[in-house]
Amino acid sequence: MADAHPPPNTAAPNDAASVPSKERLRTRCCYCLSKTLWIILVIIIVLAVLVILVLYIIVTPTSFRFHVTDARLTLFDYAANSTLRYNLVLNITASNPNKKLKIYYDVVQANAFYGGVRFSTTDVNMPWNSYLQDKKSSNLFSAVFSGEHVMALDRKQVSEFHEDEKDGVFPIDVKIRFTIRFRLGDYQLGHSHPRGICELKVPFTSDGEKVAPFNPTKCQIDF
Questions:
Q1: Per the UniProt record, which residue ranges are transmembrane (predicted)?
Q2: Residue 109 and residue 66: Cα distance in Å, rounded?
Q3: CA–CA separation, 93 vs 140, rounded Å?
Q4: What predicted TM-score, i.e. pTM, was given to this entire model?
Q5: DSSP the chain
Q6: How far is CA 46 from CA 49, 52, 54, 59, 88, in A?
Q7: Which tens digits make up the pLDDT trace of 136-155?
């Protein structure tokens, strides 16, 4: 009679395989922790974006407005030596339509052009540097262009100058460069650098009288 042998234990390997090793447990923990951190980071970013969006909607920033309300041109003479002599004074109204934002005007620099050629650069006269304009308010400023400038006009431009001289009204473009900051309560919202252009028809003033009325002109502001 043959000896009876116990059947081999085949369950032991399977049981061993079912027990995670320490390395597997460590890998799973690292994966779970990394996944949790990424989820928290995404949630924080989404909440920050939502807060900024809500604040933007509440504040509703609106571009300021510039109008040239008056222009006085008492000298505008182009000599044979290609020198333009000029004296131009602009009165400007700046309006802040925002209900919650104040505006710091740090730099407001104006460049005057005739026939597409720049002939003068000046600063818009503010009461002081970094002028703070209150919300829902308007203020009066001025810009003075005075002096002489050598500018080589071609034959066509010289002919157009003499035509304008006869009419007594000169097309002068004023391009303005701004450096501004918005202020919300006690917080300042960084620097912005918008630009503006004022396309003017400026009547010549002789003996204190203008040859034609000046039409107040709205400047186009581009952020």
A1: 36-59
A2: 13
A3: 5
A4: 0.74
A5: -PPP-PPP--HHHHHHHHS--HHHHHHHHHHHHHHHHHHHHHHHHHHHHHHHHHHHHHH-----EEEEEEEEEEEEEE-TTSEEEEEEEEEEEEEE--SS-EEEEEEEEEEEEETTEEEEEEE-B-SSSSEEEPTTEEEEEEEEEEEEEE----HHHHHHHHHHHHHTEEEEEEEEEEEEEEEETTEEEEEE--EEEEEEEEEBEETTEESSPPPPEEPEEE-
A6: 5, 10, 12, 20, 53
A7: 999 999 999 999 999 989 99
Which amino acid is present at 107? Answer: V
Query: Residue 16 has what pLDDT?
Result: 47
| One-letter-per-residue 3-state SS of 178-202 | EEEEEEECCEEEEEECCEEEEEEEE
Domain ranges in the chain are 65-222
What whole-number distance in Å separates Cα of residue 122 and Cα of residue 145?
6
Q: Which of 46-50, 61-65, 188-192 has the highest mean pLDDT?
A: 46-50
Among 179, 189, 167, 187, smallest CA distance to 223 is for 179
